Amino acid sequence: MRQWLARQLHLADFTLGALMRRKGRNLMLLAVYTLVIFILASVLFFGSALRREATAALTGAPEVMVQNLVMGRHALSPHEWVEKLKGIRGTRHVQGRLWGYFYDQATGANYTVMVPPKQARDLQVAEGETIIGRSIAEMRDVTRTGYLFLLSPAGRLFKLKVKKVLPAESELLAADLVLLSEADFRRFFSLPADAGYTDVVLSVRNPNEIDTVVNKITRALPQARVITRADILRTYENVFSWREGIVLAMLAAALVAFAIFAFDKASGLSAEERREIGILKAIGWETSDIIAMKLWEGGLVSLFAFVFGVAAAYAHVFLFDAGLLAPVLKGWSVLYPQFSLTPTVDRLQLITLAFVTIAPFMAATLVPVWKAAITDPDVVMR
Amino acid sequence: MTTPMHTTDSQPPAGDIELVDVTKIHNEGQPNAVVAVDGVSLTIPAGRVTVLKGPSGSGKTTLLTLIGCLARPTRGRILLAGEPVSALPERFMTEVRRRTFGFIFQRFNLIRGLSALENVMLPAYPLGIPYRELKRRAMDRLERLQLAHRAGAAVELLSGGEAQRVAIARALINDPPWIIADEPTASLDTRLVEQFLEEVKALKEEGRSLIITSHDPRIWQADVVDMVVSMEDGRITGIEHRHDAAAASAAPAAASEETASGDSAP
Amino acid sequence: MRRITIALILLGIGFAALLAAFVHAGLAQAGRRQVMAENRALVAALGLTDPALFTEARYTRHLTQADLFTPFQDSPASFEHFPSGALVLPPPQIRSSHARLIGGHPPAGTGNPVSPRSE
Q1: pLDDT tens per residue, range A130-157
Q2: Local structure of residue B150 (DSSP, 8 states)
Q3: Could you tell me if residue A234 is inside a domain?
Q4: CATH number, domain at B118?
Q5: Any idea what DSSP says for residue B58?
Q6: Are A307 and C117 a contacting pair at CB < 8 A?
Q7: With contact defined as beta carbons under 8 Å apart, do B173 and B121 qualify?
Q8: A377: closest CA of chain C, how far (Å)
Q9: C-alpha angle A193/A199/A202, rounded to 5°?
């Protein structure tokens, strides 16, 4: 055992010495490799954490939402729907919701304006008052003045006293919220009292019965569109998943990069490398020693890149709030929530990442050596 | 098949290398086949310095690779101290080679990027000798060659003479009984050649055996050399024994018998 | 010191950093439980349905509430207006069956696309 270990360390030490011959080039290679892993791991960490955070919070979302579709587009739900839905057996807490979008010309940001439901006892607002998300408070300099000024779509100026600013930890969910009383809401959007609701939400008495209830709703209201909490969770379980969108593109790009690298390396050794293997064999190394030495080369570089890439990615996402990814996510939004994610480590994803990056690299270092390693050592004499 | 003539019994003395009708053909069966070594039979005595001389293309380097177990003969047998080695599987052949031979190459062939000390330790890496022990052995070798002060130097920075001694030290790290040197003085000046011959003498005094190929007359005319084998076109054209009176008396008979027995001497 | 010793020390540091990350994650999760519970309560109280990640346009803000027209406003083949289109797809319920969304009844046998069990 001690002999085996000493042999491995000798071979590994030799391969490091050989790598150091072209210090600049190999350090560059290592840096690029580490960077690729850093980027991939960052995106994976961020995606997992965001998914987890969002789906955890959204388990509190309404169980069933009913929308009105007219000519294929979203329209206000008439008041009668509330009564009709209350009449369906199995439904509970049916209520109409009032919420909409507002484009604030002063900042160029989009807000979600909402009337808080009655059960949100801590979040009720009186006329002339509002509760807003922290990002809005900062953008509109509310802390100094204590008031939020909004120009309604009809051109009226609303001066709203900011009763409360939602906590920083809720940024991810509530950064763009402006809560108004129903009266203020209707006046703001010029919505007459009989115009209806944005949509209707309800819960079901028995969660196992949800399909039945949904079917009843669609029979009672054929033009309605029904969305369940399961739909919401499903949407956000897939966000930033490696199966879709930019993450898949990045993963594919990384694989292609590694494949190109492997192909380039596998196309053969230089004459000097061949000669060196000949020398080693002549002075007493066997084929298995050459192979082991090359495995150490691939292994050390891969491990190093992986370990430091992943550690750096973790720090980047969870200690520095994914600062490098933020611009990508922010896109063209003017308002972007400042949030910290709960650290999550998905072991399966890490193992997949390891396999997908380390295996091709090891193959790339080993394959070209194979043929040379089995040649006769007398080549060095010629 | 010729039998070795310089002993009375049919078995060679322990330690000798015996070649029996050894032939090496490169690219056998193809249009560009080359017969590098053609039916060579030879006994190389242990504890002596043997030189293979001849022009390039004479097959002396190929013969050296066969003796040193770096390649297998196409036909014939090679025996080490009476034991056949040429037919062994690669694994065992490497084992034998590692134990028996130390190599010094034409251009020293030191590995760049490593220090002199590391180059000396290199042949012993696969043996899994603990680092401290191996380092001690290597430093010992370097000390004996007055190179201890250059142990940490990168091999690219060594002078010709220093590189030569590092190559010798490397060949000795596994304490082999046989040293094989292929054109060791090809690019050296007279002073370094003399230095090399001094080392050869020291090695012989330690009880080691040496086989050297060279077309440098300073080598095969040197005092320390015991036997000079001349080769041409893959065949032995002459064997000259020196120093050993008994061998010398037997030699003319051996030489004449070998030249007379059907080899096409020019 | 031998090269391999240095390399192994560095690797050791790296692994230690990874291990620290694992431990940190575990501890941080425990610490965030309170916050996550509060957020869930906020969502339940206000009836929120989407995180406020993509506030570029009304139709990127509430992905789950988007109707058929919104993701395919101009044409299914048109370019994305916003970078968020490269990051997230329209919700699965839109991508599955359209009959539901335009007020018609789905063909017999396709089941209710909004039901999780129909996938």
Answers
A1: 999 999 998 888 887 889 999 999 999 9
A2: G
A3: no
A4: 3.40.50.300
A5: S
A6: no
A7: yes
A8: 27
A9: 115
